[in-house]
Design a protein that fits this description.
15 helices; alpha+beta; four-stranded antiparallel β-sheet; about 725 residues
Length: about 725
């Protein structure tokens, strides 16, 4: 691995930072959750976890509210000058929830509320730390940090064209960069909006773009956008836009979700996050004059994609280093080529006894002199914890602790002793591929005799992480082992891990990876082979249907939320829906990894491999949930599949949430979803059940009864 500091020192860069945040971790545009660590699971490590879980006391059965409640304090960020923290606080009754934005002054240890609203997102500090821009559902607004400041709406958003804040403005002290659709000229405008409301158009284009960057003087420098021309192959272009003339600097292929960090126009050097000429996404330096690419930093254990980085700029807004980089394999792991910084990282990890943490620091300040915001993601806690680390004194404090405790004082939440820790496992597929997943064990039970639930994630281009998951805690509280596999197609583990399953749906490699994980666990005395269930949502539901159809004797029950029965058909209709709503969807990417839906012969062959074509093989109970207003998996398709299975005399149930889209969103909708899941599992593999009372839980009971469309499993 090349020396990070040496490679960056050759850049006297003219600058286009596309990180999207002046004081936070850089997030790759693909939004794959972060990237990790080096300890591989082994039978002995698994046995150790089993021993720990079996030695604990059996927890009492908690109600949904206790398990699903989250902290009222969240979304903490550090101001660029290191003097303030901001944070959100939820309050109000469930049906009238509001969000408040607060400021905490680190020196005085005092906080004050700025304002409250129903919906709030994308809060960005100005460089001078005196104001914050933010978005509501309908507008972009600004508010000052001083007590008594009132928010001011700058302009209304056109949500159809996805007007939004796109980046901080590190070149001006009190402004933000916004993308806005101009209906009269049919142009996407890039605006510099100041905190006093003054706005200026600094760039415009008729083409959609995914990111935008300025040079050190605050002028438009580069942008990136996907090739949307007919016959495209999913390319992404990084384009020099100096002097309003477009010049393609670099092309990323369909399987490289690259992101430009910095451009030195004089030396023709481009700093990228990319997997070009690599399986893993890493920080790379491109010499545009020779098209040569050097690796600046990649995962030291060669396991995970780059997921985040802290970058630093000097007073001239020139990049001077990327001192901390993060990878999320099993856990979030932070690295630095700077020996002193690595010692700070090691010290924090040791003091917190944490396996996963994120580090945020100001881009414009000396990282050795300014405080760091530490976000502890250790999954033994029911919510993330926020700390401040002072590099000059090596001290770690938790300044918001009393505020968090007061905000949650009357809110029932799972206590630490009742939380089941999630830990990684690694296993080998039948074709010799090394796979990863997570296991969560219930407390106080014989693990070899406990029911095992395989919970398949959605996407499939997403992943399971080690983070605290409330739905998983519900299942372990009821006595279930929970297995969450990161099968091939999952993100964060490299290009091959993501793309090597082209067309491998139905009974292909994706499904076999999942089944191989189940057998790995059974062979290591995890779970009762006669008490197995498979559950999932969206793609996970597709996998659930496949499991019941292709391995009909393995699982005793399947629960499928928003289930596509033919993923090729669902992908095609979802793509058409995104075009109608002016959203960008990577058509070529989906056609490469699923099926070319414009080819009727391929579509027919793909259908023959789908769960829909093999529904007749289902032997065990199937429970399905659907959102009436779903635009990813259409309700008509779910109903047709349910009626088809019903006509074959299968044990099928279908619940339709009348207000939900792709997932339940209301509190009663979430509770109904979880109860149906819990009841399905209890009836078929014998876990514990916290029953609902038709009188005490009248509202939930009526909601369930009213919206159960088919119920051959007698769930109610």
């Amino acid at each position: 691995m090349k020396s990070l500091s040496k490679l960056l020192s050759i850049l006297s860069l003219t600058a286009a930072c596309l990180s999207g945040s002046a004081h936070a971790i850089f997030i790759v545009e693909l939004n794959e959750e972060l990237a990790e660590e080096a300890v591989y699971s082994s039978p002995s490590a698994l046995e150790k976890q089993i021993t720990i879980s079996q030695s604990k006391a059996i927890p009492k059965l908690h109600d949904y509210q206790t398990i699903f409640n989250a902290s009222n304090i969240y979304g903490v960020s550090l101001s660029p000058n290191g003097k303030y923290l901001n944070y959100f606080e939820k309050s109000g009754p469930d049906h009238k929830r509001i969000v408040s934005l607060w400021i905490y002054e680190i020196a005085t240890k005092k906080s004050h509320k700025l304002f409250s609203t129903k919906q709030l997102s994308n809060v960005r500090w100005t460089v001078d730390s005196q104001s914050m821009f933010f978005e509501t559902r309908k507008s972009i607004a600004v508010v000052g940090v001083n007590k008594g400041s009132a928010p001011q709406i700058l302009f209304d958003k056109n949500n159809r064209y996805h007007d939004k804040i796109i980046s901080d403005d590190n070149t001006f002290t009190n402004s933000i960069i916004v993308r806005r659709w101009h209906a009269e000229t049919k142009q996407y405008q890039v605006l510099r909006v100041e905190s006093n409301g003054k706005e200026s158009v600094i760039y415009q284009t008729p083409h959609r773009f995914s990111s935008f960057g300025l040079d050190a003087a605050g002028n438009p420098s580069i942008l990136s956008r996907y090739n949307e021309a007919d016959g495209n192959k999913g390319e992404k272009y990084i384009i020099d836009i100096a002097n309003r003339q477009e010049k393609i600097l670099w092309q990323c292929e369909w399987d490289d979700q690259c992101g430009a960090i910095y451009f030195d126009r004089k030396r023709q050097n481009l700093l990228l996050i990319s997997n070009y000429q690599s399986d893993l996404t890493r920080l790379a330096l491109v010499d545009l004059s020779s098209s040569s690419v050097k690796t600046v930093h990649s995962d030291p254990i060669n396991r995970a994609d780059l997921s985040g980085a802290v970058f630093q700029f000097n007073q001239k807004k020139q990049l001077i280093s990327a001192p901390i980089l993060s990878y999320h394999g099993d856990y979030i792991k932070n690295y630095s080529d700077n020996k002193e910084l690595q010692q700070h990282i090691n010290l924090i990890e040791k003091k917190l006894a944490t396996s996963s943490m994120r580090i945020s620091a100001s881009l414009s300040q000396d990282i050795n002199q300014q405080p760091w915001l530490i976000i502890d993601n250790n999954n033994v806690y029911n919510s993330v914890r926020y700390y401040l680390y002072q590099p000059t004194t090596k001290t770690l404090t938790r300044p918001l602790k009393p505020i968090v405790e007061q905000a949650n004082a009357n809110k029932p939440m799972l206590k630490q002793h009742d939380i089941a820790a999630k830990f990684p496992i690694h296993y080998t597929s039948r074709d010799g591929y090394q796979l990863q997943g997570y296991l969560t064990l219930p407390s106080g039970v014989d693990i070899s005799k406990a029911p095992l639930v395989t919970n398949v994630h959605g996407g499939p281009w997403s992943r399971v992480t080690d983070k605290y998951q409330r739905s998983t805690q519900l299942l372990t509280n009821r006595g279930y082992i929970v297995f969450e596999p990161n099968f091939r197609s999952s993100t964060g583990f490299g290009k091959d891990y993501l793309t090597s399953t082209k067309g491998e749906h139905g009974d292909g490699r994706i499904q076999r990876d999942i089944i191989d994980g189940v057998h790995y666990l059974l062979n290591n005395n995890v779970g009762d082979k006669n008490r197995l269930a498979v559950v999932g949502h969206s793609f996970g539901a597709y996998s659930t249907l496949a499991a019941l159809a292709y391995t009909p004797d393995l699982f005793q029950v399947g629960f499928a939320g928003a289930p596509p029965h033919d993923i090729g058909r669902s992908a095609m209709y979802y793509y058409r829906f995104t075009k109608q709503t002016n959203q960008y969807m990577r058509e070529y990417f989906m056609k490469q990894l699923v099926v070319d839906w414009d080819d009727k012969e391929l579509m027919a062959k793909h259908y023959e491999k789908s769960p829909a074509a093999h529904a007749k093989h289902i032997k065990k109970p199937l429970i399905m949930w659907a959102g009436k207003n779903d635009r990813r998996v259409f309700i008509a398709d779910v109903k047709d599949y349910a009626l088809n299975v019903e006509s074959m005399d299968k044990q099928v149930s279908l619940f339709i949430d009348p207000k939900a889209k792709h997932s339940p969103s209301s509190k009663i909708g979430i509770y109904a979803y979880q109860y149906l899941l819990e009841k399905s599992l209890a009836d078929n593999i014998g876990g514990k059940l916290k029953s609902i009372d038709p009188i005490k839980d009248k509202k939930l009971y009526r909601f369930l009864k009213k919206n159960m469309a088919i119920d051959h499993n007698k769930l109610l």
